Amino acid sequence: MSRLDLKRGTVEMIHGSGGRASAQLVAELFARAFRNEWLDQGNDQAQFDLPPGRVVMATDSHVISPLFFPGGDIGSLAVHGTINDVAMAGARPCYLAAGFVLEEGFPLADLARIVESMAAAAREAGVPIVTGDTKVVERGKGDGVFITTTGVGVVPEGLRLSGDQARPGDRILVSGSIGDHGVTILSLREGLGFEADIGSDSQALHGLVAAMVEAVPQIRCLRDPTRGGLGNTLNELAQQSRVGMQLDERTIPVREAVRAACEFLGLDPLYVANEGKLIAICPAEHAEQLLAVMHAHPQGREAAIVGTVVEDPQCFVQMQTQFGGNRMVDWLNGEQLPRIC
Amino acid sequence: MSRLDLKRGTVEMIHGSGGRASAQLVAELFARAFRNEWLDQGNDQAQFDLPPGRVVMATDSHVISPLFFPGGDIGSLAVHGTINDVAMAGARPCYLAAGFVLEEGFPLADLARIVESMAAAAREAGVPIVTGDTKVVERGKGDGVFITTTGVGVVPEGLRLSGDQARPGDRILVSGSIGDHGVTILSLREGLGFEADIGSDSQALHGLVAAMVEAVPQIRCLRDPTRGGLGNTLNELAQQSRVGMQLDERTIPVREAVRAACEFLGLDPLYVANEGKLIAICPAEHAEQLLAVMHAHPQGREAAIVGTVVEDPQCFVQMQTQFGGNRMVDWLNGEQLPRIC
Fold first, then answer.
1. What stretch of H or E contains A103?
2. Domain A171-328 is in which class?
């Protein structure tokens, strides 16, 4: 059997057969790029020891279109997204699993580029991809590649972060500017050219989280405002905790290029997806210390306190606008941006 | 917002938006069916304690077509398949995660049926689905529903099963008749009617595995012969352990209806997928005891010793046929059955 043609070859149905061609795809592409002691064992599962503590598990399916974009691709996004979901429990992400659904005819060169990017993201984050699976569907029954990643991690002793822990008086922080990822993807898709100045913020946030929970273990909850953006994520948290929220628009960091693109596109940056930002809610007395810790970390340099948790049996999120008015930040009702992650 | 129309409604792009419609789909369909304390927390990840021991993680993407078949559907299959991958390490499966990729226009009634079936399979197996994710792709960019499940479990103290542990002289056992799943799916797809007499063998095997490893902790390795069937799986194990294998065709259990269907279809049952069978390799001196334990379990009543591990630097799997000849059981080279799981 000759080697995979990673320059001109394409994904074929036979690569999903479970036979020799499947084994070759795994060996010459996936196992080569992800190389580690667990994959080298060649079993259908990985075995490892976890440090003591509560275990965290998160899974995310990725269907972003287009597959490649300024600041990343579906591969790096699939690694960052799941690492972040694990990290938002205050946990240290330890291991990743990856399931691929490939479409017949997809260029192996593109697949190799995606897999290399995943491997680089996993290496950089220090979270190995230890097990996986690959399936192939017929042309027209998929869209290039979908990647589902699952992560496990461990929560340090004494932490119990959850979306239902916000209390009136708590402060709401965000780690940096919002809307970068969503605007980049939409601009690219529509051929608008804004993405030249922006780029996705896709990144793994577990380093920032570790610094934050070590300094301020009193943090109530962390969440990354991905699909649905800051607006929806705050509504989710308000509902879970049965509280209201009062935001101050002037303090919410939005990059100029993102603001301009949103105006052009008729989008509200509050509802645009992020892939490298987090929301933190913590007791008021720890907010300044938490902000200082975030500012001292490369991923939190633009962090800001953007609002306060308030008592509200209706769980409304409201925002004082830059012009002094007060507006509702409701759940996103319509479809804003399909296939953004 | 009115309730989901689970009778006449369909999956819409907005169900993947991360907004209110996404939250509704999760609340009224997934969380309702899978209901447990972890999902009720409403976080993007689940937190739990694991019993002490080495942790096992496995992931499987499911793209089977058709989605419903005699003996199961993509939902129950996705639960059984991943539980089995975890169990094959000798582990007790503890928790599952599920990622869904839905196609726009897919009937919500079908989705509900699949989700109910997953919930029932998880309940029956005692392995809760504690976290998940849902994405939606445009019509023609998917195929109804793809489900990626990931499982974690824990290996009892003292066990170290792996595909590289087979040694010359070991015995090879299978837990029951082979080929049922693959023949059922193919017959259904081709409208041949054989499936009326057969049905998929899809089932979770962790109960059988627990009985086996408790009685015979000396087992070298377990593996479920899914895609690629018994033939490929034994070749994988032979390669991993750097050994050869000698099978005896007369001892390999194949149901009459499966044998007849395979003859009609020109298939070799050795390469047809199973979803509820396992291969065990164990030292010769424990083989009879292991067989007795399997026979005593409802999932192992038709278990058989089907061959012996031999020394062979070329790692060939060979089989003495019922007519006394010896044939090579090579890796499956061609595509036998696409989208079988």
1. strand A92-103
2. alpha beta
- Mean pLDDT for B277-297 is 98
DSSP annotation string for A104-139: TT-BHHHHHHHHHHHHHHHHHHT--EEEEEEEEE-T
Taking residues A262-288, report their average pLDDT. 96
Kindly tell me the sign of the dihedral angle through the C-alpha atoms of B283, B287, B289, B290. Answer: positive
Residue A99: closest C-alpha in chain B: B61
Q: Token pair of B125, please?
A: 């197996």
> What is the value of ipTM here, to two decimals?
0.97
**What is the β-pairing status of strands A244-248 and A317-320?**
parallel
| B window 55-94, beta carbon within 8 A of A | 55-63, 85-86, 88-89, 91
- Estimate the share of chain A in helix, then strand, then coil, as percent rounded to the nearest 5: 35, 25, 40
Domain spanning A13-155 has what CATH number?
A: 3.30.1330.10
Give the up-direction half-sphere exposure of residue A59: CA atoms within 13 A in the CB hemisphere.
33
A240 touches chain B (CB under 8 A): yes
> Does the bond joining A225 to the residue before it have cis omega, within 30 degrees of 0?
no
- Residue ranges matching CATH 3.90.650.10 in chain A: 171-328
Listed in order, the ranges of chain B carrying CATH 3.30.1330.10 are 13-155
Give dist(CA B316, CA A328) in Å, integer.
70
Q: pLDDT tens across B98-109, in order?
A: 999 999 999 999
Asked if residues B115 and B6 have their Cβ atoms less than 8 Å apart, the reply is: no
